[in-house]
Amino acid sequence: MADEDPKPDERPRPQFGELAPPGWVWKPPEDVDRLDTARPNPTVDDETAPAPEAPRAPYRQAPPPTTPPYPGAAPGAAAGRTPAPRWNLTLTILLIGFGFFGMSYSVAILQAFPTSMQLLHSTQGLGDFSPAPVVGTLITAGTVTFWIPLTAGVVALVVLFVFLAVILSTDPALIDFYSGVMPASPMPTAPATP
Question: Cα–Cα distance between 30 and 157 in angstroms, integer?
Answer without folding.
Answer: 60
